[in-house]
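Memo to structure team: turn this sequence into structure tokens by end of day. - J.P.
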Amino acid sequence: MSLVLVVAIPFSGGSAEASGPDAARLLETINSVGPDGAGVIEAGRALRQLTAAGPAVLPDVLAAIDRANPRAANYLRAAAETIADRALAAGQELPAGRLLAFVEDRRHDPRARRLAFELLRRVDNAAAERLVPSLLTDPSGELRREAVQRKIELAEGLMKLHALADGPQRAAISELATGAYRAALTGAVDDDQVKAIVGPLRKLGHPVDLREHFGFITEWQVIGPFDHRGGIGLDAVYPPEREIDFGAEYDGQLGRVRWQPISTGHEYGIVDIAKQLENYKGSCMYLAAEFHSPERRNVQVRLGTPNSWKLWLNGRFLFGREEYHRGMKLDQYPVEVELQAGRNVILFKICQNEQDEDWAQRYEFQLRVCDPSGAAVRSQPPGQVGGGGGR
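Reply from structure team:
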């Protein structure tokens, strides 16, 4: 669910090139554009001047994306691509060394680094190819995808040899293929690549716990149902939104309700309210889970559900969505959050409407915690070393 701004940049052959202080001023103007559209005219004018600059300014344009809001980032990406296109069409060289250094510096914005990588590939493909193996656990999900794919292709090639071999040679090839698949799995964050790895690994006799790999939260406390008939429940403030007291008891939709444990063994962490409890029509349920972090850090809570929902962290409302039965997929809704050091409490509210069609009966969700690339971040309760499998 992302809005992509298409920026059309007219070419003006007579524009003076921007460089040095001029380029810095133009970049600042573009980065001043507001998410509500404030400053768009000035940003557009600065963009036209900036795109007349030579390729030496490319790393500065890419670096400006680090501090850009989504609208400004769209302008800056368009500027970088246009500058590169015009330079190459005019027979000029792009600053390959600086582009390489930009990609290698993981402090930069992942989107900017991906764009720098693509520009580097256009002018020095050999350097880009040499870089790929180092991207297996990169903060950019897009960059690590490339490295993961290379490992998958290596493993698949070994499996073809495995099918033709026998005896000790077959066992040795199997071990090499297993190692390649396992290496690929360390970097895989996209479900299609994970499936391409897990299937062969399981056939080779090596089980993979997808709940562990993705970092799904599988153990919760649940309370409800609370009334959602007529759609009133999503905005209603029921007791769990005011306090989380796992020993408390409240008036619910069908009588007194109290917190109770619920867990899921589904390999994609799906908690199925309808099957595991009951498909209470016109209701809402609350689920809470503790998440321990050794330090304060920024992460994403990614969830999928076909129901309406709201999300809180440590009592602070984060986001919600009122929509029913439009499908469910992995990482459907990413929400940026900041974990505090120590104990954190995630509170999730899920609402089921009163539709009685067969396709409107799903009452479920999946939720995981990860870094911006999509790699799992697991709860680490005090005294526990190495994480807890997303629990």
